[in-house]
Design goal:
The protein is built from three helices and three strands; from the N terminus they run αααβββ. The chain is an alpha+beta fold and 111 residues long. A three-stranded antiparallel sheet has the order 1-2-3, covered by helices on one side. β2 and β3 form a beta hairpin. The mean pLDDT is 91.
């Protein structure tokens, strides 16, 4: 007899997955949506500078603002220079669910 496995993706997980997809989609890669995505995937090969941190902050804010299902409460960009890593921590409000949750991104740079 066949075994059926059901996977349920909750609303918050679904939105988080959509946000990760948006952030890690290169601008111009989405057909008929040239402004969708970020340049963050390309930044991972750049030197980790204050200007780059500002660009990451700006692009993450734009990605969160693009999705009407979330409202950005706070965003912290935490560089770990010795590890060639940036941790981005966002507190998001999921509008339709009226839930606040943390959204973490770890960006590892070529060092």
């Amino acid at each position: 007899f066949p075994v059926t496995i059901s996977v349920v993706v909750t609303d918050v997980i679904l939105v988080k997955n959509d946000l990760y997809n948006h952030i890690f989609t290169r601008k111009g890669d989405r057909v008929k949506m040239p402004r969708f995505g970020t340049t963050i995937p390309d930044m991972l090969f750049e030197p980790l500078t204050e200007d780059l941190l500002f660009q990451i902050d700006t692009q993450l804010r734009e990605a969160f603002a693009y999705d009407p299902r979330v409202e950005l409460i706070s965003l912290d960009i935490i560089p770990l220079y010795d590890q060639h890593t940036v941790n981005a921590v966002a507190d998001l409000r999921y509008v339709e669910l009226d839930i606040t949750d943390r959204f973490d991104i770890k960006l590892e740079f070529e060092g």
